[in-house]
Design brief:
Elements lengths: L25 E3 L1 H6 L9 E14 L5 E11 L4 E3 L1 H9 L9 H16 L4 E5 L14 E2 L27 E13 L6 E12 L4 H9 L8 H16 L3 E8 L5 E8 L14
Parallel strand pairs: 6-7
Antiparallel strand pairs: 1-4, 2-3, 2-10, 3-5, 7-8, 8-9, 9-10
Pfam families: QueF, QueF_N
EC number: 1.7.1.13
Pathway: tRNA modification; tRNA-queuosine biosynthesis
């Protein structure tokens, strides 16, 4: 069955070093979307931007090659790919001879697209510092607000309030205090999040309390971001909204979901904790 409990998460695993596409474990998105009332056409566009930092294979002469990989999974795909299975799959290339990068990209694209149920974009870059600058998410940081907080879950959308008596604003609000937990292992997932919107001003203290209320919440990265998007849209009614979470890596992978009411594609800025 394709549920988190049947995935490799939390289980003793033999790390194979040969290619095996069957290691990829898809999990349907719809069950968690049902929980937040997304049962028809998606109210958002977007993609999940994955970065892999532990990708290696052998060239035609048997010499190891390393690279960084970026994978973009469309939000409209029917499945997410469970991250430990993704790691096991990528690790399987470590003793595989691959003709060239084009051949590897073709294999990765084919296998990952099949698992997600939609076309995935794959990009490989050299494992060198140039072109990989560290930067912050653009926006106003709300973490320094002097407020008392004593609610750490479950997520409380009631904290989200917009002042409709004020003129429309266009701004981005950022927090580095996002934390949620793996729904199977309970391990914490740490992230930064950017809420970019156009609409009535959102109360920053309420937004911060709302984000902190994910602290003991058990849900995958992609599911948390979709929950945030739906809650902000329903409670604050912005004209335009995008939510971008940049999570710290685990097992050589970081997952960065982006959801927007527009059709723009996100950049892939590496944060200080990535």
């Amino acid at each position: 069955m394709s549920t988190p409990e049947h995935s490799p998460l939390g289980k003793t695993t033999v790390y194979a070093d040969r290619y095996d596409a069957s290691l990829l474990f898809p999990i349907p998105r719809q069950a968690k979307r049902d929980e937040i009332g997304v049962t028809g056409p998606l109210p958002f566009h977007g993609e999940d931007v994955w970065n892999a930092y532990e990708l290696s294979w052998l060239d035609g002469r048997g010499k190891p090659v390393v690279a960084l990989a970026e994978f973009r999974v469309p939000a409209g795909s029917p499945n997410i790919i469970e991250s430990k299975s993704f790691k096991l799959y990528l690790n399987g290339f470590s003793q595989e001879r691959v003709t060239d990068r084009a051949a590897l990209i073709a294999t990765l694209t084919r296998d990952l697209s099949a698992a997600a149920g939609a076309p995935i974009d794959v990009t490989l870059t050299d494992a060198q510092a140039r072109g990989h600058a560290v930067t912050d998410l653009d926006g106003t940081l709300v973490d320094d607000l002097a407020i008392d907080i004593d609610d750490y879950g479950p997520p409380q959308a009631d904290y989200l309030v917009a002042d409709t008596s004020q003129p429309v604003v266009e701004e981005a609000l950022v927090s580095n205090l996002l934390r949620s937990n793996c729904p199977v292992t309970g391990q914490p997932d740490w992230g930064s999040v950017q809420i970019r919107y156009r609409g009535a001003p959102i109360d920053q203290a309420g937004l911060l309390r709302y984000l902190v209320s994910f602290r003991n919440h058990n849900e995958f990265h992609e599911q948390c971001v979709e929950r945030i998007f739906v809650d902000v849209m329903q409670r604050c009614r912005p004209e335009h909204l995008s939510v971008y979470a940049r999570y710290t890596r685990r097992g050589g992978l970081d997952i960065n979901p982006y959801r927007s009411s527009g059709t723009e594609r996100p950049d892939n800025p590496r944060g200080a904790r990535q």
